């Protein structure tokens, strides 16, 4: 009886080892495994040609796999892995070669699943030693991403992304974007070089006719990355910029489960034709601390004056509260033929959507106002209100609160028609969320002249409002 049991166990063990050998070390075993896999996978998997074994590596040719969400075709796929690594609960892939692969993602009505980093925790058990990508194309509608190159201990990959119509991403956007570049350097600290081009961009009414730029991002803690962007023919609300240039540098670090970053942005010189000014030496610095607070600082020059800005942006809240303080001295605010105005602001700005609050003081130390004759003006001032007229839909749903003290300095003059005089006084500008702005205070004329009936009359003091 004992002998029967012994030979029965030996027969079972030999049978299992034979089955394992056939499955792992013969082409027919690989074919059976793939047939079994095709039955388990959702969708339809078809493979035209199979070469190799599971244990020593294999090559599959003319693969197609289709589900309601995607359709994938691969001309050739080669895979080799280390079987002994499985004993250590790791999947070590020695070589993965993809040739002429096309993945087409299909839009469906099903809601997108939320993204969680925990869903990809299994990746720490997988190691890829050599990846070769030859004509790998990923498409969704008109969007595309193409990859070519090798990944060993170093990156050597070329890539190109095309967005021929931005409305595919956001319905309110129009225009096209293309980006191409390389990924090089060590696998753990790659350098991503990108060249960006955009044409006829319209982002919720903000227009950029042409955009060009490049970036060099180094994925390494405390290492500086850079970005240069140039935009042509830019329309932002009521302002037109012929050319905007941005020079951005920064670095990022992740330590003790906290993300920190430092970003420096230099804009150089811009033109605002509506005001006739050309602010320059514009710089902004943003520092992200480990508590998700962004510390902001910056400065600019307009005319002979300068302004400095400090503030914070809180990333802990969804509405991103922003607090800014702006202080300036003798800034050129308007430089038109009829209006030349210098200001020295001291303002506090608080923005938590949809509430915008601006408080503080603005001194006008110098101004020269020489308006032309308005007798031929064909438009009505903004104060004229038509009864029962339909109100236009608001462009922005912001509730604005103002409390600004406006002071006129000693060198503010006005010359209009037969009047020439200095102005002085103080006005308080206030605005509630549901009401128009209101100005209260007094303006005076000082040491001026007025021509009447062929005679020049001297003005000692006078009250305007």
Polypeptide structure, described:
The protein is mainly beta. Among the domains are: 18-107 and 125-140, no CATH class; 354-372 and 396-465, no CATH class. 8% of the residues lie in helices and 62% in strands. The protein has a 25-stranded mixed β-sheet that branches. A hairpin with a 2-residue loop joins strand 24 and strand 25. The longest helix has 24 residues, at 2-25. It is elongated and about 105 Å long.
How would you sum up the global shape?
elongated
The helix/strand class is: mainly beta
What is the total tally of β strands? 25
Overall radius of gyration: 34 Å
* Biggest sheet overview: 25 strands, mixed
Mean pLDDT across all residues, rounded?
A: 82
Query: Low-confidence runs (pLDDT<50, min 5 residues)?
Result: 375-389, 392-396
Strand portion, in percent? Answer: over 45%
Percent helix: under 10%
Distance between the termini: 120 Å
Q: Helical stretch count?
A: 2
Strand/helix succession: HHEEEEEEEEEEEEEEEEEEEEEEEEE
